[in-house]
Amino acid sequence: MSTTVRAAVFSATGASPEIRDVVLPDPGPGQALVRMSAAGVCHSDLSLSDGTLPQTWPAVLGHEGAGTVEAVGPGVTEVAPGQRVILNWAPPCRSCWFCAQDEPHLCEHALDGTLSPYAELGDGTPVYPGLNTGAFAEATVVPVGALVPLPEGVDPAVAAVLGCAVLTGWGAVNNVARLRPGRSALVLGLGGVGLSLLQAARIAGADPLVAVDASPEKEELARSLGATDFLVADDDTHRAVRRLTGGRGVDHAFEVVGRASVVRTAWNAARRGGTVTVVGVGSHRDEVSFSALELFHQARTLQGCVYGSSDPVRDIPLLAEAVRSGELRLAEMITDEIPLEGVPEAFERMRRGRGGRSLVRFGV
After folding, report:
1. Which of 174, 252, 327, 339 has its CA 20 to 30 A from that of 200?
2. How big is the CA angle at 39 (ends 339 and 277), to the nearest 5 degrees?
3. Are 283 and 52 in contact (CB under 8 A)?
4. C-alpha 154, offset from chain centre
5. Helix (H, G, I), strand (E, B) or coil at 60
6. Long-range contacts for 125-128 (Cβ within 8 Å, ≥24 apart)?
7. How many Cα atoms are found within 13 Å in the side-chain-facing hemisphere of 297?
8. Which letter does DSSP use for residue 114 in this model?
9. If pLDDT is split at 50, 70 and 90, which confidence band does 82 have?
10. For residue range 161-192, what is the model confidence (pLDDT) as tens digits?
11. What does the DSSP assignment read for 221-254?
């Protein structure tokens, strides 16, 4: 038996997706079939589609999702049919060198699933899963290691954003920067990850908490989620940030755009001895340069952040506590709820820097 579902299929780099039927095989050993309830549209999906990140075509993108297990393969005991789950697009192997160092976010095998087709088009053409999961479809087949049980008390309608945006943003603050109460923070870029990071910084006690975006329309949302100050991005941003922090700069600057120019702004806006955390996914052709003298003199720390240095099995229950308490507000980050056919428009909004998170809703 097999399952035929509607999916947003990308045929080539730069191509707009088409809604087509995709044929999913029955789940094999160690796999599960998940009927999707929602999928977030992440900037990493845009990076895959435009060639910034590698991808084999044709493919079903989408990696931030939640749904219900519909069937499991032979020998699967970790999840069961009827169970609500969140997708983990980087399932760790738990046995490589990085996993042994308690760094599952750097697992050598986390993206192995992207190298093999997981489904077919009606004519038998193999289809590849974007970032392992292929979430822009009514259902998907994934290894059980890519599933995390949905904690009680989290609305399934918005739980999808926990799987990437919130894990990445929350992890950047708590696992990577380790922001302490009373430290000043700057968030550059207010897409889904940036808005998650902003909330995490607020919960961690950042003060002041400065939000920056190219779109002035995001000020109200940024302030509602915790920003004490909002700036529209321009060539003077780093100076404006310094004026808000006694001329010193911030303790923590978070780059959530993925551009060399914004990394440089974050660097210039951080104080001497401060920390710059690069969360955005940029192009390998977009280079940042620093002089040897400033690296010495400024004594700043510049660090990358992959998936918030998170372990979803460990961290999603922690996030659920913040959701249940009302500290972490998921629904407010979602500015557009769309059907599957709305994915191309959601990509265009990301290109133009409009809105927060777009959420594909299935079965409505």
Report:
1. 339
2. 130
3. yes
4. 18
5. strand
6. 125/58, 127/7, 127/9, 127/22, 127/58, 127/59, 127/60, 128/55, 128/56, 128/57, 128/58, 128/59, 128/60
7. 6
8. G
9. very high
10. 999 999 999 999 999 999 999 999 999 999 99
11. HHHHTT-SEEEE--TTHHHHHHHTTTTT-EEEEE
